[in-house]
Amino acid sequence: MKEWILFDADNTLFDFTKSSKVSFKKTLSFFDIEREEDLKPVFNHVNEICWKAFENNQMTAEELRWRRFEMFFKTIGEYRDAQEAGTYYLKCLSETDYLLDGAMNLLSELKSVGFKMAIITNGLKEVQRPKFSASNLTAFFEEIIVSDEIGYAKPQTAFFEYTFNQLKNPPKESTIVVGDSLNSDIKGGNNYGLETCWYNPKKKQNLTKIFPNHEINILKQLLAILG
Question: Closest Cα to residue 54, out of 126, 144, 154?
Answer without folding.
Answer: 154
